[in-house]
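Progress against Task 2.4 (sequence-to-structure conversion) is shown through the following example record, which the project officer requested during the mid-term review.
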Amino acid sequence: MNLEIEYLTQVINSWDPVGLLAGGAPDNEYDIEIREIAQKSLSCNSEVDLATLIWEVFKDRMGIKLNKLACLKQAFEITKNEKY
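Structure tokens generated for the chain above:
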């Protein structure tokens, strides 16, 4: 998948998976995770692959184990306008 970073940022920030933005964190709080997801998404072949990647990035970077179904929902949101 070749993800558009602006749209990926919009989806992740709207989701606010760790609740940091709602707590007053700056809009660029997830930039490191978003860049890593965008870079590694080139090897994803499906929404399930992307959801797994999202889960792994947040686990590795922040030590947070997100809900896997929530990650899958976001993966579908991210890819609904993408061509891969």
